[in-house]
Structure formats: C-alpha cells, structure tokens
Amino acid sequence: MKPNLVFAGQLRRQYLLPPTGKPLLDSPGGNLLHAAAGALLWEKQVGLLTRVGEDYPQAWLQTFRQKGMDTTGIKILPQALDLRSFLAYTDPETSQRTNPVSHFARLGLPFPKGLLGYQPAPTDTHSRVTANPDSPKLLDIPKEYLTAKAAHLAPLDLVSHSQLAPALRHGGITYVSIDPAPAYMNPN
Predict the structure, then answer these.
(1) Which residues, at least 6 apart from 55, have a Cβ–Cβ distance to it below 8 Å?
(2) Pick from 139, 177, 175, 137: nearest CA to 155
(3) Residues with Cβ < 8 Å from 63, sequence gap 6 or more?
C-alpha cells in the first residue's frame, strides 16, 4: 500500500528525563517520528523520509513498519551518525538539553553508557547554507511517495526545506506543509 501522507524530518535516539515518571533511555524519537505517529490516528499508513546511520537500531525500523509507517524513504548511510538527543525537565515547564551528567546525578540515576561523549548539537545545526547529514536529499525520495496526497516537512535546515518542498510539489503532491526550524526563523 502506498502512503497517502509523507513526512520528512529527523529520527533521534532519545534520552529523556521527564518531570515525573520513568526516564526514557535510548528510545526512538525525533520530529519525524512524532509528526508521523500523530498522523497515524487518521491514516493507516504514512511514509517516512530521512537519513540514518548504519548504527540506527533495525528493530526500531521494524516496529515503525508494524505500526503503519512505510520506511522505504529511510536512507541508511554506510557510516555511523550521532543521532542522540538529550532532554531533561527540571520542572513541568522547564527543560534543558545540556549537561546530562549533572541531571542524572541530581536525580540519583546511573549515567547511561549510551550518553558517554554526548555533546548537544551545535547551534548552527539548522544552517541556511548547508544541509545536515541526516536531512533527506532529493534522490532519497521514493517514486511511490510522489503519489501521496500531502507531505509535511518537520523542522530541518533551510537548504533541505527549500529543495524538498518544490520537488515534492513538482513530483505531484498537492499539499506540502513546512514546520520551519526556529534557528532560521529570525529577523536576520
């Protein structure tokens, strides 16, 4: 079955310390997964368009397929990509993405080996002139995705947004929505 909705974005290996409840350590996450999972409330199958490294858990991709996500548009690169993402809530309304060691210590939790050497993404991750290594490229778009009714581009770098949106429209997708990345939505 071909997907009626296609989503482009980023997958992450999420490390989350919520304000209450159990931590999520090395679990599937990312803007692509969140947007596509929400759409599954209305659609039986959605297409995923992104890039991951060869170290991304294959079991997660299998789970995505079982849940109704078409993974044909996930390009697996022949290299490792650091797709880790860390988020700690200090209260229900305040979150931080830095200093994971201090947050685990604050909560009296052992530090996970999967976060060793973690550094938050640099602030230029959403560059206006270069694409991120995990952003989907034009040649990554499966032909069967171009018959979808609509596509949504989750936050990516400006280069990827400005290339993917017209390519999807030109390919035949009637509706294309874009969620701009905050890093390039500034007065400059």
Answers:
(1) 80, 81
(2) 177
(3) 28
The residue among 44, 27, 33 whose CA lies nearest residue 7 is 33
pTM to 2 decimal places = 0.92
Query: Using an 8 Å Cβ cutoff, are 152 and 5 in contact?
Result: yes
H or E element that contains 163? helix 158-171
pLDDT digits (tens, 9 = 90+) for 176-186: 999 998 777 77
* Interval 31-60 mean pLDDT: 97
- CB neighbour list of residue 8: distance below 8 Å, 6 or more residues apart: 32, 49, 50, 73, 136, 151, 152, 153, 154, 156, 160, 164
99: left (phi over 0), alpha (psi -120 to 50) or beta: left
Q: Which residues have C-beta within 8 Å of that of residue 79, sequence separation ≥ 6?
A: 53, 54
Type of residue found at 139: L
